């Protein structure tokens, strides 16, 4: 698997996306690391690739930004050529093709989530290696290993928007508590048919966790 090249920056991160009745919530911490050094405390790891489609990025910051830019360009082209909005599945397929065909040169784990008129809300995960998985919720990044048990226990299908936001906030906060490469603030995006609502949970408003 591709390792970071000299000068590259790792997102060292916690990312997740969760489907709810009528939309999806995507969330991430904001810490970017270079080894043990925190290069950026307030990174935005939620990247818009189309009006109702976002991706969450983990791995090399350079690789994931480049892939997201390429996909955003092709989705604009798709809209112009076909005269309709692309589906989340189309976006995920573009990400998967780029990540798989360049799997030995990229360090990129990506979650794609959004809403479209064909499938409604949907979540796709593309881990290192370029496989693709459609799931009701997805986790990624170094902090995800600390919260799989919590998420498996507490996730419910067809949660309300408010329940989903609290679930994502608590999950990412737990990961930030345990993972030294995750931290900062929590950035959220709530994507529905009507709009995209961006939320910010600052450090003084993070859910409190047991610190031992």
Topology:
Elements: E1 15-20, E2 23-28, E3 32-34, E4 37-40, E5 46-50, E6 53-59, H1 61-82, H2 88-101, E7 108-116, E8 120-126, E9 133-134, E10 137-140, H3 148-154, H4 161-178, E11 186-192, E12 196-201
Antiparallel strand pairs: 1-2, 1-10, 2-11, 3-4, 5-6, 6-7, 7-8, 8-9, 11-12
Describe this structure in words.
- The protein is of the alpha+beta class and 212 residues long.
- The protein is 29% helix and 31% strand.
- The chain has four helices and twelve strands.
- It has helices at residues 61-82, 88-101, 148-154, 161-178, and strands at 15-20, 23-28, 32-34, 37-40, 46-50, 53-59, 108-116, 120-126, 133-134, 137-140, 186-192, 196-201.
- Helix 1 crosses helix 2.
State the end-to-end CA separation: 36 Å
**Strand order across the largest sheet:** 10-1-2-11-12
The number of helical elements comes to 4
The outline comes out as globular
- How many E strands? 12
Largest sheet descriptor = 5 strands, antiparallel
Query: Oligomerization state of this entry?
Result: single chain
Helix content class = 25-40%
Structural class: alpha+beta
The arrangement of helices and strands along the chain is: EEEEEEHHEEEEHHEE
